[in-house]
Amino acid sequence: MSVPAAATQDGKKPAKQYDRSIVEGNLSAAVTKMAWPTIVANMLGGLQGVIDHALVGNFVGFAGNAGIGVAWQIFLIVIVFIASLFTGMSVLVARFAGANDHDKVDRTVYQAFLTAVFLSLGVLAPVGYFLAPWLLTLVNAAPAVQAEALPFLRIMFLSSSGMMIFFMLGGALRSAGDARTPMVLGIATTILNVIFNVILIRGLGPIPAMGTKGAAIGTSVAFGIVGVYSLYKLMRGGWVVSFPKHHGFSPDWAIIKSLFKFGLPTGIQGIAMNVGGVLLLGYIGSTRNGAEAQATYAVGYTELFSFITWTSQALLGAAAAIAGQNLGAGKPDRAVEAVHTAARYGLIWAAIIGALFLLIPRQLLGLFGMNEPLVLEIGTELLRVLALSGLFITLALTYTGGLQGTGDTKSPLYISIVSQIIVPLGICFTVSRFTTLEPIHIWLAILAGHATRCVLSVVRFNQGKWRNIKVDITPSRP
How many CA atoms lie within 13 A of 238 on its CB side? Predict the structure, then answer.
């Protein structure tokens, strides 16, 4: 059980002690403790996307749904590079928390924040704003889809710093063993986002209906409010992580180098996966009835399939934090068992959601205003394929968490290039050369990619080469 730390001499609230049950207690309990708050946070956070799509689908039409889906896919390509720093940060924080070293944890968190904010405001905002029209052309978005996506995309690029702070803090807290605080912050963000989006998308009183633009504004404002509060708490202290008080505000290039050493492969991995996703959107848009196919992809894959990936991402984070902390505590065998335990939980949930995809696909699609016969036909085919694909992706993500949490961030990069680019895009290219490419061919290509990623991730983790990876930073200066 955690106990309060001694009072500080500098006015900051004392930091909470790390939860040692992660490296000493029952592993099933540890996985549950780390995963369930993140699952709740992911589901509630994903709820805002569901509400966005439902409101836009009913007030704007399927072109609005396609616009949001395309814009998010592009936004993730750019933002994932900055988010890769958080993987590097999480590797360091988990190891140092496992070794019970508060000073190194706090120094790592501050340097991750400093670097992420600079890249967000200095790189992401200007580059994303000016490249947005070209990126939308790249994915073969129809003119009506581009009209809805462009303002959404530009607003998100310009106001991403609040989202960056939110994700940075969540990764730091979870890696240090506190998964509940990110859940509370996630709930607050979701509530604010839902309120703003309901008002701004459909309009209320003197506030005009803004459609997809309103969805972007609501999301940005919600993340900004929670981001400001998080900064206040990090400076004031009282959480299990905080900004260090006696190390100044300047960059520590040794720590930043370590962030990139472990995080950059994950950033390249994310870019590769999302580039693959954008190219896949291009193939979807090139099929007959491409706009309808992109709309079903945006809802079926981006939203409904998220009921599986939300849980899988939470288990990825739990596996990464527990494996990293146990490796930092000198207990690699516990790290192995933690990942296996998380994988079993993931399979159970994926099977439940997959059954719903098979049994009530039309009802699920209907929740998003997708009632046109052709859209329902394409969407039903997609959900049937995703019912099986979910089993593969949950295993792949859980074992990816085990690899990344222990410091092996390069292997998931190579695996992703093969499974998320070469396999699915290769299938689409081959089919398009010999026959007419249809949406079902693309859905099956996605399935093949997920299956490949699953097999390669499980094999690589079980090889155990991550046991010998060393993680450290320079000692603190007096």
Answer: 10
264, amino acid identity? L
Query: Can you tell me the mean pLDDT for 377-390?
Result: 93
Residue 69 class from Cβ within 10 Å (0-12 exposed, 13-18 middle, 19+ buried)? buried
Q: List phi, psi (to 5°) of 12.
A: -80, 150
First to last CA, the chain: 31
Question: Both tokens of residue 61?
Answer: 């039409």
Instruction: Tell me what pLDDT residue 193 has.
Output: 84
Beta-carbon count within 10 A of 122 CB: 10
**196, 221, 228 from 225: Cα distances, Å:** 12, 6, 5
* Of 351, 465, 343, 341, nearest in space to 400 by CA: 343
- Exposure of 459 in the CB half-sphere (CA atoms within 13 A): 7
Q: Are 56 and 214 a contacting pair, CB within 8 Å?
A: no
- Domains in the chain: boundaries: 24-467
pLDDT of 274-308, one tens digit each?
Answer: 778 878 888 888 888 788 888 888 888 877 898 89
- At 478, the pLDDT band (50, 70, 90 cuts) reads very low
Query: Is residue 319 within 8 Å of 454, Cβ to Cβ?
Result: no
The confidence score (pLDDT) of residue 15 equals 58
Amino acid at 23: V
The angle formed by the CA atoms of residues 383, 386 and 389, to the nearest 5 degrees, is 170
Check: CB of residue 214 under 8 Å from CB of residue 201.
yes
Per-residue pLDDT of 16-47, as tens digits, reads: 677 788 888 888 899 998 988 888 877 776 66
